[in-house]
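Dear Dr. H.,

I hope your travels went smoothly. While you were away I took the liberty of generating a structure for the chain from your last submission, since the lab meeting agenda had it listed for discussion. I wanted you to have the full record in hand beforehand rather than looking at slides cold. The sequence, exactly as received, is reproduced here:
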Amino acid sequence: MQDIEEQYQQLGGRFITSIDGIKNRLLKAKAFIFDWDGVFNDGSKTANASSAFSEVDSMGTNLLRYSHFLRHKNIPITAVISGEKNDTAFYFSKRECFHYNFYKAATNKIDALHYICNKEKIKPEQVVYFFDDVLDLSIAEICGLRILVNQKSNPLFANYCKHHHLADYITANRGGDFAVREVTELLIGLNDNFEQVISDRKSAGKEYQHYLEHRRAVNTQFFTFADNMVIAGDVKL
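The corresponding predicted structure, in token form, is as follows:
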């Protein structure tokens, strides 16, 4: 594990919580929840408020779920919680068989988290949260493992998160520069099954096919908010 820590420190990642502490929190995880803008991309928007993602990051989320499946024999809960309505995020969530996509949740992110936790009968401390900015802090404050995607341009914000115990790891890479892949590989390494994950994905063997059957059975649910209440999302794919 020291080798993993050294590699990530050389990359520029910062362990705010010790690597042993991160590993212990990961063992308790039952859900991986992602902000969208600034995490899967650099936050740039088109005229219709859409923003892109990378297949490199997408593969990272898949490999992480498989790593969890190998270790715990179940599919982890996965979700995107975004402040905007983003067609690309809808496509990604559906294609990757995420359990939930909450959109237009800028002032209701904590409500989205509680909805997921209540519905799935899990606790916030069993959630790993990937985030990048101020609107995410209500979730980061109560989740078990917090990954801050570092944008380089906001050192004061990163220090705020560090000093107020709102982040456990700060990425070397920024959003849009494969930060999600950076952390998903870190977490797979801490699950002690990185070589098996890569080998099984390469060969698409029996165990990986078993995982895919469970993944494909996930029906992505879309939600948003009206008058601070969760409502079904109007998403057409």
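Two observations you may find useful: The first helix runs from residue 2 to 11. The radius of gyration is 17 Å.

With kind regards,
E. W.
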